[in-house]
Amino acid sequence: ARMTFSAQKCGVCFQPPSIILIYRDNVQGKTRQRIMPVRNFSRFSDCSRAAEQLKNNPRHKPYLEGVSLRQLEKLYSLLRDHLEGQSLSESLGRYHHEHTIDPEEDMNKLDDKELAKRKSIMDELFEKNRKRRDDPDFVYNVEVDFPQDEHLESCAWDTESDEEI
C-alpha cells in the first residue's frame, strides 16, 4: 500500500498559531498546503503531548504520516517559546542546545529522564545516518586502513599480557 500523501515541509505560523504542512498528493500529483490550527495551547502546555495529539488526530493523521513526532515537538516548542516572548533565534538556539549531545558530558551523572532523552537523540541520529541495503551509496563490506605513522596512545590494559590476568 503506497502512501496517498507524502510530507514535503512542515513549519509553524505564530499568528494565528498553526502548524503548516506542505505535502504532495500522490494520487493527483499535486503539491498542496494544509493549515492545522493550534487551539488550547499556552506557554504552560506540554509540547510532546500536543505533538502526539496532533499526529493521532483522525483528521490530520494521513497527512502527518511522514512527519516525525520529534519535528512536531520542535514546532510546538518554538510556538511555546514565542508565547513566552522569546525571539525565533533564541528559541532555535535553546532547542539546538537541548537536543545536541555533548561528547564531554558525563552521562553517568544524569537522572533517568535526562538519560532517556539523550539516548533518544542518539537513536534518532543513528537512524538518520544509517546506511541501508537499498540506499544508492550502500557498500556491503567497507575496509578502512588507519595511518600507522601517527603516535598511538597506549593504555594500561594494552600492555598487560594474558598470563597476568
From TrEMBL:
Protein name: Centrosomal protein of 19 kDa
Keyword Cell division included in the entry's annotation: no
Cell location: Cytoplasm, Cytoskeleton, Cilium basal body; Cytoplasm, Cytoskeleton, Microtubule organizing center, Centrosome, Centriole; Cytoplasm, Cytoskeleton, Spindle pole
Swiss-Prot/TrEMBL GO biological process terms: microtubule anchoring at centrosome; vesicle targeting, trans-Golgi to periciliary membrane compartment
Family statement drawn from the similarity comment of this UniProt entry: Belongs to the CEP19 family.
Organism for this UniProt entry: Rhodinocichla rosea
GO CC terms, sorted: centriole; centrosome; ciliary basal body; spindle pole
PANTHER family, sorted: CENTROSOMAL PROTEIN OF 19 KDA, CENTROSOMAL PROTEIN OF 19K CEP19
Keywords: Cell projection, Cilium, Cilium biogenesis/degradation, Cytoplasm, Cytoskeleton
